[in-house]
Amino acid sequence: MSKKVIAMLAIASLFIVATGCSNKEANSNKTSVASKVEVDTTITLGDTIVVDGEGVVVEKNKVTINSSGTYSISGTLRDGQIEVNAGDEDNVQLILNGVNITNSTSSGIYVANSKNTYVILEDGTSNEVTDGENYIFEDISTDEPNAAIFSKSDLFISGTGSLKVNAKYNNGITSKDDLEIADGTISIDSVADGIRGRDSITISSGNIIINSQGDGMKSNNDEDTEKGYVLIEGGTINITSGEDGIQAETVATITGGDITINSGGGNENTSKVHSDFRGFGKTQGAAVEQDEEIDTTSTKAIKAAVNVKIDGGNININSADDSIHSNDKVEINGGTINIISGDDGIHADSTIDVNKGDIIIVKSYEGIEAETININDGNIKVTASDDGVNASGGNDGSSINGRPGQNNFASAGKGTININGGKIVVDASGDGLDANGSIYMKDGTVIVNGPEDNGNGSLDYDGEFQITGGLLIASGSSGMAQSPSETSSQNSINIFSAIQANTLVRVEDSSGNEVVTFVSSKNVQSVVISSANIKIGETYKVYTGGTSTGSVNDGIYSEGSYSDGTELESFTVSGVVTNIGQVTGGFGGPGAGIPGQGEFPGGEMPKRP
Predict the structure, then answer these.
(1) Per-residue confidence (pLDDT) for residue 609, from 0 to 100
(2) Cis-peptide into 145, omega within 30 deg
(3) Is the confidence at residue 7, as pLDDT, over 70?
(4) E strands of 327-470, at which residues?
(5) CA 381, 384, 385: angle at the middle one, nearest 5?
(6) Minimum mean pLDDT range among 68-72, 305-309, 399-403, 593-597
(7) What is the DSSP string of 428-483?
(8) Local structure of residue 593 (DSSP, 8 states)
């Protein structure tokens, strides 16, 4: 097969789709290369560089392409460079047809000027670009090029071949404008950032492996609010980064793909040592945990200054710092997200919206944290060594240009959790649901396996907890126990009893019909239950222990029969909040055996000092 035909097939694999959407959510509108383009010039690298065609100047081991066209390049270039220095309106296509390029003092491929440069990885070929540890620049006033593959113009990479980039000086692949990857198997080892597109990065397909000492991917234009974004539409992406996995100066959007990120050495390498002053001296409305910094390097997995938007994809994260972080908003509309975090699982300084998707936070300090948290749908599981879902006013200082943990939330009375649907399962050593302001629940299912120590509670709020629908089961210690507020239109009960872990708690009506059968994975002293089936004027019984033949999901039993339980109490619901039993001793740290604050009028505890 001729080189001309091979090139035509290679270019046919290039697809840069112009969607016409806003660049924050989609991508830039770039003109596609025609599906059938003949090769204008072939360049064969070696001890002697052979050029067949026009538009090329060879000087020693430097190949300069100075006009538009399609160039097929093959062979080995030792200590040399492919430079594109064409006109402002020139489109240049570089077909890498099995190249090995090394340059000990500069970039292996350098695009000094063009309108657009397209790098096509020929089908079935392996290509490699390596730079050196020390660059020699043309004059002392510049520090560019500074990546193994560096472009001052828009850069597009496609094709079904492979490309290995060894960046020993700085970044792996850099574009000072837009950078798009449509296909290819790309492997990058970098002493700094893996992929950097100043104006934007768009990944639509391909198999990308990044091992970087700096950020995995970064778009850093901070001068134009329409730029500085990262968009991932598909592909398989595996990032191991010393610093942030993906960083966007404006918006990071994920609509598809399989993405794996290990940032900062993973959760065991967290830069924060959390020291909590909680319990009976905990100050309401202000976070008093102190984050001692061992290292000021930002090691988040996905980070953006304006918005992190996830519409789909499969995302697996193991991060030393926050796994998903925005200085403003996080929006999750779909996808599957698995998180292991050394700090927050999902953090936004302003708002987190969960509209759909499957989210599993296997490990975190605080699971989900923002000033306002809106959960409208989705399946969420959170495990946290401190608070599970925390609505606090302000920011935590771990922003784009700030070091992690430099500030703390400290805005009394602010912070709202809105639960309008979905399923939330929380396992928290601190507070389960914690709002410096109020909690509002209209629908959905919330299950909290809260703290065993009495310095925290399964529910913690300063304003009100108004529940009008859905199912709430919140178990934990009794020392700081709170129930939903009297302003609720749906009734609730708070069961105070020392209950061993894995012991069933069952509530049934006067006819023996099940209201709830639940089992906590922890030793608890308070179980709050709110359900539409708890009605004023009706009589109910509470049992502990026993067995159920029903199926269990996240601690809730369904169907089946219950037997051999011990009746704790029979009661009649006379108000919005009904307290049952009392704790006479048993589990917990300081304050164990103290009746829960749910016994106070309205089911609310007195304000803590």
Answers:
(1) 32
(2) yes
(3) no
(4) 329-341, 346-348, 351-363, 368-370, 372-375, 379-384, 389-391, 416-419, 423-428, 433-435, 438-441, 445-449, 459-461, 465-467
(5) 160
(6) 593-597
(7) ESS-SEEESSEEEE-SSEEEEE--SSTTS-SEEESS-EEE-SSEEEEEE-STT---
(8) T
The amino acid at residue 522 is K
DSSP collapsed to 3 states, 48-93: CCEEECCCEEEECCEEEECCCEEEEEEEEECCCEEEEECCCCCEEE
Q: Which residue has the higher pLDDT, 587 or 274?
A: 274
Question: In this structure, are strands 524-530 and 492-499 parallel, antiparallel, or unpaired?
Answer: antiparallel
pLDDT in tens, 435-474: 999 999 999 999 999 999 999 999 999 999 999 999 999 9
**Token pair in block for residue 537:** 């004027």
Tell the burial category of 600 from Cβ atoms under 10 Å away from its Cβ (0-12, 13-18, 19+): middle
C-alpha radius of gyration, the chain, whole number: 29
Q: Name 43's bridge partners.
A: 51, 73
Tokens 């492997």 correspond to 187
**pLDDT value at position 394?**
52
CATH topology for 1-263 is Pectate Lyase C-like (2.160.20)
Structural domain boundaries in the chain: 1-263, 267-436, 439-603
The most distant pair of C-alpha atoms in the chain lies apart, rounded to whole Å, by 95
CB burial of 139-162 (b: ≥16 within 10 Å; e: otherwise) equals eeeeebbbbbbbbbbbbbbbbbbb
Q: What is the pLDDT of residue 344?
A: 98
